[in-house]
């Protein structure tokens, strides 16, 4: 069984992800569509991996998305609502191809290693920077740091074994991402701040995100105050 099959099996198709749902509740109304599109894209890629019986099938499905991001949006096929929404972003959406690459690397991995975990989390985190640019925020370093916390925590809680989860948490600690501190992002990136806090707390305390009342209160405080 591939690493990706283990990771992406944590949620059934279409089931809500509580941390994402809570984070979206604090998105400014005019910014919310960008967050929804980003999370929908990530979920579509995860589903492509989860639903595939063999890694090669997942890679073929992911290649379709990678090819789209290598094209101009003017060349994209009609009839795919998510592509139509992404085409409206005021950003270099070709950079979202990196998110596809991250899922493809995970799909091809038979073993979760430090390098695989860092590369996968990094590519998911950098997709957050693309979304931030679509919202005219240039604080890419802080956004990517928050994204790394969330991506590593998400990976850790969906690993196939405790040994793999421990490896991911060790990577997070080495990189300085196991922290309960707020990443300090501007108001229109409040969902990313919430997820960064939840991810950091989960990595620090070695448990799933949003698994205690304290996590919920920390998320609400970050949503309301930004810290």
How would you sum up this structure in a few lines?
By secondary structure, the protein is mainly alpha-helical. The protein has eleven helices and no strands.
What distinguishing features does this structure have?
mainly alpha, 66% helix
Describe the structure.
This protein has 227 residues and is an all-alpha fold. The chain contains 11 helices and no strands. It has helices at residues 3-8, 18-25, 32-50, 55-69, 81-87, 97-108, 114-134, 140-157, 162-175, 190-205, 213-225. The radius of gyration is 16 Å and the shape is globular. 45% of the residues are buried. Mean pLDDT is 90; it is low at 9-13.
Distance between the termini: 40 Å
User: Can you write the helix and strand succession as a string?
Assistant: HHHHHHHHHHH
Round the Cα radius of gyration to an integer and report it: 16 Å
| Rounded average pLDDT | 90
User: Which stretches are poorly predicted, pLDDT < 50 over at least 5 residues?
Assistant: 9-13
Continuous helix count: 11
Beta-strand portion reads: under 5%
Largest sheet: none
Helix vs. strand class:
mainly alpha
Instruction: Report helical residue fraction.
Output: 55-70%
Apparent shape? globular
Number of separate strands: 0
Secondary-structure blueprint:
Layout: H1 3-8, H2 18-25, H3 32-50, H4 55-69, H5 81-87, H6 97-108, H7 114-134, H8 140-157, H9 162-175, H10 190-205, H11 213-225
Helix pairs in contact: 2-10, 3-4, 3-6, 3-7, 4-6, 6-7, 7-8, 8-9, 8-10, 10-11
